[in-house]
């Protein structure tokens, strides 16, 4: 009867209301800044409920969190709300320290299994596992104890051992599938909680080299199943991210190189197999999503500054070249129209909202709520183009890293491939033309909907500008001011530009049009490639300046006669 009660909507609403109360109560009376300002409150709580201090009150809140996680198995809303409160408590410095004193927390950290928390067994709640283990990771790493870390990882170690001993003939079963999905989401949460060299080292030493082969085995057997490959690749994307300089190994340690070799194996295994599979109706979910996560993995590894990539070429190791080759093949397999698909939807959203604003401008407050919470989500739900934003961001981030740190690889490509990449950069810059004028409106909508990652995606043009700046700077340093190109890369670049002499002038023209005629909010980012392109050839700049001035004079001459019979009176400068 009690279990059935948790399935009722009224009970779920009540528990979510209780969680909301706890969240607000914590911010005012339990948080790090509220310890000394709540003495009168706890005096009264001690009289009424026997809760005389923060620790006793936290014990009540944690008991409610544990009860929800044990009893709710199918309500994603309640589970997510509960985990959100749990993470808020654990991530606070003082509240986190207090939590470690509670027996309930010690039990959760030591027994985070499906037997004690049934929601971990539900596939529909598998996304919540990452938040759950992110919180557990916070609590584990608050104590500088490798012994506690290893003991807390025992439940995950058992899953590892079970999957590693599963024969290949049995690896395509549903039991393995769901166990692998859950394990990857759990590991991603633990990896997210590592914010220092010490904590990351604990996870790295625990995983490498003993358990890394399982990742390669999983990606090889389940390439055609995005439900498996996506959490696996996203874990690796988190694992190679050098946030807060957590990936800092000793000068004598080969761990950075070894980690990149594992990254290369994983990307090559996935890329070679996914490219051989036929396309399906849901091309984004089936292929593109995995591809953009692979590009993110490689971009983070290349830009992490913890690998000396010269070692690979020096010792004949193809890990770097193989990873770059397969990543390039994956990007070339995606039509440019799909990479820029988000821009098209962006225009549609802006047009719809601006029409509504113009039609009902007198009802501003009601209109904003209507646009933000009715029309905008409807457009998002009705089009997969919003998902393509992630693809756009990953693609341009990858190209920017290539042009910044591995420009020789780009220059050594054949001319058609080189032109395709540079052409995509120009298309990315031109994407500003369609959204800059309505950027404030879009940022307001994104903020209202808490779509922070989407809002950041509007700035991919800065990545395009950075990539163009690196190409132009390389041309200037090695060709313009040099006597003659001597390196193979410089010779290739000279050949590419000779085959398409309008390449740099067209990009410079696009940049000037954006800066001069659009409400551009990132002029500093765009000014760098403008300078590089200008000093390559002063003649190019002079011709472009004359062309822009001539076009503006024509426009003025067309406008002036319409405004007055005497053009000189209206515009004395003419």
From TrEMBL:
<keyword id="KW-0539">Nucleus</keyword>
<keyword id="KW-0813">Transport</keyword>
<dbReference type="InterPro" id="IPR044189">
    <property type="entry name" value="XPO4/7-like"/>
</dbReference>
<keyword id="KW-0653">Protein transport</keyword>
<dbReference type="InterPro" id="IPR057947">
    <property type="entry name" value="TPR_XPO7/RBP17"/>
</dbReference>
<keyword id="KW-0963">Cytoplasm</keyword>
<comment type="similarity">
    <text>Belongs to the exportin family.</text>
</comment>
<dbReference type="Pfam" id="PF25795">
    <property type="entry name" value="TPR_XPO7"/>
</dbReference>
<protein>
    <recommendedName>
        <fullName>Exportin-7/Ran-binding protein 17 TPR repeats domain-containing protein</fullName>
    </recommendedName>
</protein>
<feature type="domain" description="Exportin-7/Ran-binding protein 17 TPR repeats">
    <location>
        <begin position="10"/>
        <end position="127"/>
    </location>
</feature>
């Amino acid at each position: 009867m009690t279990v059935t009660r948790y399935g009722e909507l009224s009970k779920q609403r009540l528990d979510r209301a209780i969680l909301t109360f706890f969240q607000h109560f914590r911010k005012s009376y339990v948080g790090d800044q509220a310890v000394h300002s709540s003495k009168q409150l706890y005096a009264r709580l001690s009289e009424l409920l026997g809760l005389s201090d923060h620790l006793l009150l936290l014990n009540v809140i944690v008991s409610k969190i544990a009860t929800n996680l044990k009893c709710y198995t199918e309500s994603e809303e309640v589970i997510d709300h509960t985990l959100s409160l749990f993470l808020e408590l654990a991530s606070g410095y003082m509240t986190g320290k207090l939590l470690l004193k509670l027996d309930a927390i010690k039990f959760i950290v030591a027994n985070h299994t499906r037997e004690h928390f049934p929601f971990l067994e539900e596939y529909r709640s598998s996304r919540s596992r990452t938040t759950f283990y992110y919180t557990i990771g916070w609590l584990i790493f608050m104590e500088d104890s490798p012994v506690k870390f290893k003991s807390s990882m025992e439940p995950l170690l058992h899953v590892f051992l079970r999957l590693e001993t599963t024969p290949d003939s049995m690896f395509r079963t549903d039991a393995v599938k769901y166990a692998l999905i859950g394990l990857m989401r759990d590991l991603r949460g633990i990896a997210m909680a590592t914010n220092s060299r010490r904590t990351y080292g604990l996870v790295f030493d625990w995983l490498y080299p003993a358990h890394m082969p399982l990742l390669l085995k999983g990606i090889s057997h389940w390439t055609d199943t995005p439900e498996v490959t996506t959490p696996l690749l996203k874990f690796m994307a988190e694992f190679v991210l050098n946030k807060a300089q957590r990936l800092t190994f000793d000068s004598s340690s080969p761990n950075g190189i070894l980690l990149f070799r594992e990254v290369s194996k994983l990307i090559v295994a996935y890329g070679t197999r996914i490219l051989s599979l036929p396309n399906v109706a849901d091309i984004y979910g089936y292929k593109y999503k995995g591809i953009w996560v692979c590009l993110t993995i490689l971009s983070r590894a290349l830009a992490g500054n913890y690998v000396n990539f010269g070692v690979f070429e020096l010792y004949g190791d193809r890990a770097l070249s193989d990873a770059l080759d397969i990543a390039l093949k994956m990007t070339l397999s995606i039509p440019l129209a799909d990479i820029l698909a988000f821009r098209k939807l962006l225009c549609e959203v802006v047009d719809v909202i601006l029409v509504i604003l113009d039609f009902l401008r007198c009802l501003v407050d009601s209109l904003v709520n209507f646009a933000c919470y009715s029309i905008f989500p409807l457009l998002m739900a009705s089009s997969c183009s919003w998902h393509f934003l992630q693809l756009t961001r990953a693609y341009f981030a990858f190209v920017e890293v290539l042009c910044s740190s591995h420009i020789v690889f780009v220059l050594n490509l054949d001319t058609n491939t080189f032109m395709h990449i540079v052409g995509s950069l120009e298309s990315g810059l031109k994407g500003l033309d369609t959204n800059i004028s309505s950027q404030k409106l879009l940022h307001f909508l994104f903020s209202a909907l808490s779509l922070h990652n989407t809002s950041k995606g509007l700035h991919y043009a800065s990545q395009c500008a950075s990539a163009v700046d690196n190409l132009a700077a390389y041309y200037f340093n090695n060709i313009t001011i040099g006597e003659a190109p001597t390196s193979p890369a410089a010779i290739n670049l000279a050949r590419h530009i000779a085959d398409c002499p309008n390449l740099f002038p067209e990009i410079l023209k696009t940049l000037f049009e954006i800066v001069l005629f659009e409400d551009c909010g990132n002029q500093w980012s765009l000014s760098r490639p403008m300078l590089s392109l200008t000093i390559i050839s002063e003649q190019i700049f002079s011709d472009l300046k004359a062309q822009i001035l001539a076009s503006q004079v024509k426009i003025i001459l067309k406008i002036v006669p319409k405004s007055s019979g005497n053009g000189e009176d209206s515009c004395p400068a003419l």
